[in-house]
Amino acid sequence: MLTQVSVFAENAKGAMQKITSVLAENHIGIYSILTNDSGEFGTVRLLLSDPQAGLSALKDAGYLCHSGKVIAVTIEDTPGALDRLLRDIRTINVNIKYLYVTYDRHRSVPAIVFCTSSITEVEQSLQARGYETLQG
Fold first, then answer.
1. What's the pLDDT tens digit per position in 86-104?
2. In terms of Cα–Cα distance, which of 81, 100, 98, 91 is closest to 122?
3. Do residues 53 and 99 both lie within one domain?
4. Quick one: CA dihedral 113, 118, 124, 126, positive or negative?
5. Domain co-membership, 63 together with 13
6. What distance in Å separates the CA atoms of residue 80 and residue 17, rounded to the nearest whole number?
7. Helix (H) or strand (E) run with residue 23 in it
8. Of residues 103 and 21, more confidently modeled
9. Which helix (H) or strand (E) holds 87?
10. What are the b/e assignments for 20-56, b being 16+ CB within 10 Å?
11. 83 and 55 in one domain?
12. Which of the listed residues 67, 95, 115 is the one where a domain comes to its end?
């Protein structure tokens, strides 16, 4: 299970760079970033080298943000790998709130990051099926 930082940010010129600047000034690395817009504002989801320090730095800079748990599962870099994972998640009978793809630098394979209301149950079920989940 990983801790993800979510930032509510204005959809304006330079908004992303302001966020990355706060993190850079605090020596916090960005492992993954996903942005979604909703008109004038959007959500920026971040996997950081130090999620708690990143959350504090962003809050101190005036951002509305929070942290939460997500699951990251490594998969093979082959056609159908994501489909197999999603099929296995479907058999667990839970809803995926959102999903994005990142990269596991240590193993050089894709990692699927997703959020569900049953984080612990889903993570344990996937591990029992032989999937490797990232921890942090």
1. 999 999 889 999 999 998 8
2. 91
3. no
4. negative
5. yes
6. 35
7. helix 15-25
8. 21
9. helix 81-92
10. eebbeebebeebbbbeeeeeeebebbbbbebbeebbe
11. no
12. 67
- For residue 108, what pLDDT is reported? 86
Cα-flanking dihedrals φ and ψ of residue 126, to 5°?
A: -70, -40
Give me the sign of the Cα torsion angle 51, 73, 18, 26.
positive
Q: What is the CATH number of the domain that holds 80?
A: 3.30.70.260
* Strand 41-48 with 2-10, pairing: antiparallel
Stated pTM of the model:
0.89
Q: How much is the pLDDT for 102?
A: 92
- Say yes or no: 50 and 92 in one domain: no
Q: From 100, 95, 93, 89, select the one nearest 129 (Cα to Cα).
A: 89
Residue 18 lies in a domain: yes
Contact 66, 6 (CB under 8 A): yes
In a domain, 133, yes or no: no
Residues 124 and 90 in one domain: yes
